[in-house]
Amino acid sequence: MYESVTLSLTGNATILSVNYFPSINLYEDSEIALLCLQSFNSFPNINENKNKFSIQIVDDENNNTPMMCYIKLEEGCYEIEDINQRVKKQIDDYSSENLTKLTFDISVDPNDFRSYIKCNGILHFQIPFCMAPVFGFDKRQYKPEYAIHRSEKAVNLNTINSIKVMCNIAQGSFNNHLQSHSIYEFFPSERTGSKVMQTPPNLIYYKLNKTNIDSITVQLVDQDHNPIGNFGEALTIVLHIKRYGS
């Protein structure tokens, strides 16, 4: 029987699993806590569910056959400046190929975080898997009647509001009214690509749901318990198991 044991799990995914042979035998009153989490802030904020929109070329001489520039971003971690550059690059390529003069620029108001888009084409934000919610816009068309379009809502680049550390042998936490295996929650304050280190100053221990540990799985999920990725970055999670009160 172990009175205290430290488990370290390392891998290049947000799901880490380890098998133990022989199994780790623990006391009935044993409990578990997160000691440390280390990774990089490479959690994507743009994915295939919200990475598209299109721009219709305004051409009074060719209204019967409207020209459309389709924009698509690869899954990744983006700041608004990154999105602006990627969109402009695709527009420039389209304009060069089709001899158009399409323009686009997006910026964010630092006071209310609403976005401003300057575009001389018709923005089609009603298409499936559109980026409109990322920009803070409604899912509809925006015609170039005004010099600049202002979004109805704040920019929503960070769809992950909380990252939960789930451990399959832990119990005692709840997500709203449902039981959960969560043992820790955090949100990375570091800039995209920077090192993430989480070392809780006050450890919170959770009771185990088994005392004969032959395997353990730890996973990172978002606030809605949806799995999240990290582009294969290294992830290390260190857990501590001890007897209650020790």
Automatic annotation (TrEMBL):
This is Uncharacterized protein.
